[in-house]
Design brief:
Strands 1, 4, 5, 6, 9, 10, 11, 12, 13 and 14 form a 10-stranded mixed beta sheet that branches. β4, α2 and β5 form a beta-alpha-beta unit. This protein is of the alpha/beta class and about 300 residues long. The radius of gyration is 18 Å and the shape is globular. α1 crosses α8, α6 packs across α7 and α9 packs across α11.
Length: about 300
């Protein structure tokens, strides 16, 4: 089934205990699309400036499952840029700078051929922009959003309206606490369900993820990674693996997804795929590891994780 993602294309500079990477490809849309493309075709709606290096464009186009015809390269504009430094435990980071660039301009236009998309992921960007994008996909069967502390603090009315319209929300445990005022992640997620979504996925970094659904609860650990080079984009690649699996499952069994939303069972399997995808992403800076990832490696690690968790 058609899957579309809207979000950011960025140029990142990252410092970790393992080293640093200067002016590499980043952005929520980029990581999500690369991860999702291993499961299903994915369409990008995003904007970048004409300062985006040619090699970054080539990386996006490297993934055969990505339709980048919705990526606008704006003449005279600047690409979104972010710099961050991770603490020794890799669980926390400091933002060194943020340059909005094209994000301060009008949102990108959605190609008419994308408007039949049935699976919609609103990657991290201003909730007002996310709302506008959401309404452009009238045939959506599953719409999921991501958000962050910046929007919780500065755009709460738009975020509340967005939550009343989406089927699912993906966010970090500290963002869940900020949004609800509740320190317990389960209690926070249940509070978010009252705001509209059918399910909430709380990302807990090295401690895995938590799924709170109107049908029940689920939890998965992180994959036991031996090496962590750069956690940047782990959450977006997690979401890409999750949504890519759901879109692929909907294409194989369209009758199972005729109603809005997704079942607890299907989401648990999707979270397992997202977890495995994120475990590859953290093995290198930027998209370097996803670019070299093979189907055989992906399937082998999923089989290992599924056996470990009794997930089939």
């Amino acid at each position: 089934m058609p899957l579309v993602v809207t979000g950011t294309i960025g140029i990142d500079t990252v410092y970790t205990p393992s080293g640093h990477a200067q002016s590499v490809l980043g952005g929520s849309c980029t990581y999500f699309a690369a991860a999702a493309s291993f499961h299903a075709p994915v369409r990008i709606v995003a904007a970048a400036g004409d300062d985006l290096p040619a090699e970054h464009l080539e990386t996006i186009r490297h993934f055969p499952g990505i339709d980048a015809s919705g990526l606008e390269i704006r003449k005279g504009s600047k690409t979104f840029r972010w710099g961050g430094k991770y603490h020794d435990n890799m669980d926390r980071r400091d933002t060194l700078y943020t340059e909005l660039g094209v994000l301060a301009e009008a949102p990108p236009k959605i190609p008419d051929k994308f408007r039949d998309s049935e699976f919609v992921f609103l990657a991290n960007t201003h909730p007002g922009v996310q709302l506008g994008m959401l309404e452009a996909f009238p045939q959506r069967r599953l719409a999921v959003a991501d958000t962050m502390d910046l929007w919780i603090n500065t755009a709460r009315p738009e975020l509340d309206k967005l939550l009343s319209k989406v089927d699912g929300l993906v966010l970090n445990y500290d963002e869940a606490e900020l949004l609800t005022g509740k320190r317990n992640s389960v209690a926070a997620a249940r509070h978010i369900l009252e705001m509209g979504p059918t399910f909430v996925v709380v990302k807990k970094g090295e401690h895995g993820s938590l799924l709170i659904h109107r049908e029940g609860l689920g939890a998965l650990p992180a994959y036991p990674a031996e090496q962590v080079v750069d956690p940047t984009g782990a959450g977006d690649s997690f979401a890409g693996g999750m949504m890519g699996f759901l879109a692929a499952a909907g294409a194989k069994h369209p009758g199972n997804g005729s109603r809005r939303g997704a079942s607890l069972e299907s989401l648990m399997r999707a979270l397992a795929h997202g977890t495995v995808m994120a475990s590859f992403n953290i093995e290198s800076f930027s998209l370097d590891r996803l670019r070299t990832l093979t189907r055989e490696e992906l399937d082998a690690r999923y089989a290992s994780f599924a056996g470990m968790m009794r997930v089939h």
